[in-house]
From TrEMBL, chains A, B:
Needed co-factor(s): FAD
Endpoints of the signal sequence: none
Stretches assigned to the Acyl-CoA dehydrogenase/oxidase C-terminal domain: 272-422
Matches recorded under PANTHER family: ACYL-COA DEHYDROGENASE, BROAD-SPECIFICITY LINEAR ACYL-COA DEHYDROGENASE FADE5
The protein's name: Acyl-CoA dehydrogenase
Keyword Flavoprotein included in the entry's annotation: yes
Length: 536, 536
């Protein structure tokens, strides 16, 4: 049986964002049936293989001892490889199936909803594959990518250092040339997701470091790749120094990685590591935004099941007006976020399959909104899910608490949501004088729903105000950037739901109507907050 | 050194809500200096005795084995008794200091902010003392209360059963008369905070149960008291069947309690147990609302310390515009909530010390708002505190994650926030046709701040709308009750801050202005949500 989430993903891909038409235009048609079959298979894998062990995995956690990390995932990961899921959207020339990024987004949502800690491994590997596909030489790619695409090796991204988080420009890891075209990396990286584990024989590390002649700051950072096990079969000088004790994602090892003269190769040009990493990060941010959707979906699944069977006052609590309200909030927010993630992923596909430059601009605009708005909503929805459970929500056995604990990291990593808001304001909206945002708002403004049209117009005015303030007082503008991004998210969520309702009024009309009546006003509320803050 | 929280509590008690004037009118004057001294001593105890062990206590947790519960608090609790803190606001006739409830509220905030798991024990004991003070016979009171007031025995409230949570009317625990004026209790109670522990020799249980001749439903519930150790020194037939594994408050044992023919006495009249318990619950809800304040205060303390020393982009992150915004949100919300808790607590004192019936009505109105709005804000502020920390916020060592994990229960227990919203709408506002709410809004409407006056007027209109809808479609009204309560909270928070700013513009003017500009619009946003939901 297909889950509600999977059914909605199929509906979204085929009837809202138009994946069949896009693939047909690109000459590699995927029918609605093809899409349904792939998503249904992904759903089955996630429901049957990942979901059953997720709670026990959280309880056991990843365990560190003497440089060795043990996870609860050895068998699960073997099934991941066996299913070939890592290859889904990977390039065909390296052994991938070359399917659209939007299908990988669907897989990401289903996997993250089933077991976030597990799915982080494949997500990071996908990011590393993406980075190497764009920046490695053909010779490098041939050595690493086939085994990453098969899932035989995983990938890990090594950026953060203790003193260099949001500000990567100050990182200190050194890369000394060894004379043979290779480099010795020395330094400490922290917060390395799946940096060490027991699921594969080898791990490919992508590491930001400085060459000896590097200029200071972000323009002196280069990108390197190295492997845990070297080509001659010996261990590289890379060691896990410990793992973090965290609020959630307990079974995903968050590692301190020590590079102690590790043998590495440069990837791409010297001093061009940060742009290479940022290009990759856009896709990673799409993945993290999708985690927000997944946490909403996981919370909703548990809350609906609990509310249907818990009787108080002579009827299931799902029928109590305030619990019904909470469930409708969870449903409408999760569907809105899901469709927004698919809309964003389709920009990746439109650019990749049709070379559509406009899609690239749209993607750049939507990415920070997706990342921040969906992950904030994931936390909010997970918390609402706990509330639906009453006292049981706080007890770990029910699973609802784990969803919130796992969800809480998503607004932080891959660039905090505050960083996303500044990215949206400065590097996206202000950069082109608001042109791409206005183009998007013009589309929303063509909605047949008057409330959406009015909200789009009001948000256009807010955008003008933000541009004006950003031009004369950047710090003032940045102090309301989060509110601005949030308003954009509420507006676009409503737009996606209105489109879904237009396609299938009987399935999604009530959900959209709930949102447009009760949640769309949050866009105006955020605008009022901005206006209040900027008032002289 | 006095903490910021303690300084603000002293300021609030002495200059905003007017405790010195009230105590003088009551003929038992407490000067501003007296109040400052008591709060400063409480602050010292919490900072020096409770706070240092809170993180280790969370990590160790309460441990259950064979009916025995071990906590990390044996030594800490001994210091609690030694300091005489339990007696602070307890009645003088039972050995208490008889100080105002508003001072106990200050102690509650400081203790909960220092170590929530610990402070829950004293808070539940205070609730039991309150209940017995009002409902026990003098003879019963003399046997139990002095040892509870000293802290030598703790109290536990036994209400919830597996199938009876928000709906206590269906509870099944039986009370069989033993013929000697005593009763044998048989049944299972769950979610019993500090139901079993190793800090005291004895525990007094207040238990809701049914007499054999009890009518069905909530009118057939009586209140009983029994002790873990009977007067002859033998163990009563009360057993802890296990403790819950929870998201937070790990060191507070949440017990399954089995009454297996436990010898008990009735407290109050037969079948009148629920009203007795609900009267006590109003005070307990004040205590839980204060927990929300405490979680905001704890989150703020950690976030301010981290943001001051964490350097990114060449300056402390506290100076980054969006981090500065988060800190201001945390400060203004926490201060607003703190003052609202004191305002509510002062109603308790006005009623108790002056016999002021109007204060009783005001207390009834404010209690659900305080409980729900402050605990929602506690969760929100704790989450913002994590965000200020970036990646470190998700790592347990930083402490910020524990604040959120501990805070998340407060919107659930002592009546979920959904129940509070219905209580506000149905049993408070609709009950008197909105009279008390209008009286409160008239006070807010006399504020010199035009934004507050406008917000009070708008909320008055929303109140009229809610009353109208409640009269003809109670389920529709209840589906927006949470939004209505939340709007009330944002309005009253602004009112408290405006009063603080008027008293001391240099200390609190900027905080109030931030709130009035940026957060007060949330009241209007909730009104828009209600309007949207109720639109035909």
């Amino acid at each position: 049986m297909t889950s509600t989430a999977a059914a909605d993903l199929i509906f979204g891909l085929t009837r809202v964002v138009g994946l069949p038409a896009l693939t047909e235009a690109a000459g590699a048609p995927l029918s609605a049936e093809d899409i349904a079959q792939i998503v249904t298979e992904a759903d089955r894998f996630c429901t049957e293989v990942l979901m059953p062990g997720a709670q026990a995995a959280d309880r056991a956690g990843a365990v560190y001892a003497n440089g060795v990390v043990t996870t609860p995932y050895r068998e699960t990961y073997a099934k991941w490889i066996e299913g070939g899921w890592q290859s889904l959207a990977a390039p065909a020339e390296h052994g991938g199936q070359g399917l659209p990024a939007s299908l990988w987004t669907a897989m990401t949502e289903l996997g993250m909803a089933a077991d976030t800690s597990f799915m982080l491994g494949p997500l990071l590997t996908a990011g590393a594959i993406d980075c190497l596909t764009h920046h490695a030489t053909p010779e490098q790619a041939a050595r690493w990518l086939p085994r990453m695409v098969s899932g035989e090796w995983t990938g890990a991204m090594c950026l953060t250092e203790p003193h260099a988080g949001s500000d990567l420009g100050v990182l200190r890891t050194r890369a000394e040339p060894l004379g043979n075209g290779r480099y010795a990396l020395t330094g400490q990286k922290i917060f390395i997701t799946w940096g060490e584990h027991d699921c594969t024989e080898n791990i490919v590390y992508l590491v930001l470091a400085r060459l000896p002649d590097a200029p200071p700051g972000s323009k002196g950072i280069s990108l390197f790749a190295c492997t845990k096990v070297k080509e001659d079969g010996s261990r590289n000088a890379i060691r896990c120094g410990g793992i973090e004790r965290k609020m959630g994602i307990h079974a995903s090892p968050t590692c301190i990685m020590l590079f102690e003269g590790a043998e590495a190769e440069m990837v791409g040009e010297p001093h061009r590591g940060l742009p290479a990493m940022f290009a990759m990060m856009n896709n990673a941010r799409l993945g993290v935004g999708t985690q927000g959707v997944a946490h909403g979906a996981a919370a909703l699944r548990l809350a609906e099941a609990y509310a249907a069977q818990r009787i108080q006052g002579g009827r299931p609590i799902a029928e109590h007006p305030d619990v019904a309200r909470m469930l409708m909030e969870m449903r409408s927010i999760t569907l809105a976020a899901r469709l927004l993630a698919l809309e964003t992923a389709l920009c990746v596909d439109r650019h990749a399959l049709l070379g559509d430059a406009a899609a690239q601009n749209r993607l750049a605009l939507l990415t920070p909104i997706l990342k921040a708005w969906c992950t904030d909503r994931g936390v909010e929805t997970a918390s609402t899910g706990i509330q639906v459970h009453g006292g049981m929500g706080f007890v770990e056995d029910a699973g609802a608490a784990q969803v919130l604990r796992d969800a809480r990291i998503a607004p932080i990593y891959e660039g905090t949501n505050g960083i996303q808001a500044i990215d949206l304001l400065v590097r996206k909206v202000a950069k082109d004088g608001g042109a791409e945002m206005r183009a998007l708002l013009a589309e929303v403004g063509r909605s047949p729903d008057a409330r959406l049209r009015a909200a789009a117009e009001a948000f256009g005015a807010v955008t003008g105000r933000m541009l004006e303030v950003q031009g004369r007082d950047a710090e003032a503008a940045q102090s309301v950037a989060v509110a601005y991004l949030d308003a954009a998210g509420w507006l676009l969520g409503g737009w996606m739901l209105a489109r879904a309702a237009a396609e299938d009024p009987s399935a999604h009309g009530a959900t959209a109507e709930f949102y447009l009546r009760r949640l769309l006003p949050r866009a105006a509320a955020r605008a009022a907050e901005i206006e209040g803050a900027l008032a002289a």
